[in-house]
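Sequence in, structure out.
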Amino acid sequence: MQGLDRKRALPVLSTLLKDRFEYQWTWLGARVIRLPEDLMVQQEILASRKFGAVIETGIARGGGLIFSASILQLIGNPAPVIGVDNIVHLHAREAIAQSPLSQQIKIIEGGSTDDATLVKVRKLIPAAGGPLLVVLDSDHSPDHVLEELKLYSQLCKHGSVFIVCDTIIDELGAGNFPGRSWNDGVGPLDAVEKFLRGEASWQRSASHGRRGVISGIRDGVLERLPST
């Protein structure tokens, strides 16, 4: 599958995103605003090792947190799923509260890069836990994503994984996201490139991300290497 021409998928993705294709999906009854192919990649990652916790910045409708918690339950991993957002809307709280997985999900309301938020996140990560899966899906402006990468990487040990959502913004170029600060076509992928240039302990995952075709996270899956 490595030989598939990603460029041929970009016009299709542009049309799908303009038609809000990613908003039509639910997981266990909760809206999950992700492309199905990206969820498939995420479950592969969740099943690939025993994560100590999952952290997701950007809660939206709550479906992403429920998705992670359900996969962890299936594989017998009781690790906490921590959702961070500066505003957690009532419909998201209700969706999570009504889920049978609600006890595994922890919500923090606050800016993802605020000191107070990071203190709360640290307290929820098991001290003897394994690597982290960190899903970045909040503000997609490059400066914000880069700051998230720098801050949350400090919590990560060997084997931890970042899923940086919406690197598709940079691939599609300017004019595809009107009304957003990243409508200039500079977004999460720019942040990923800058982060990797300054962090020798991180690399793009060799087995995830680039297989994606109808994907919003291509080149956005990163893995922490062993310390040297």
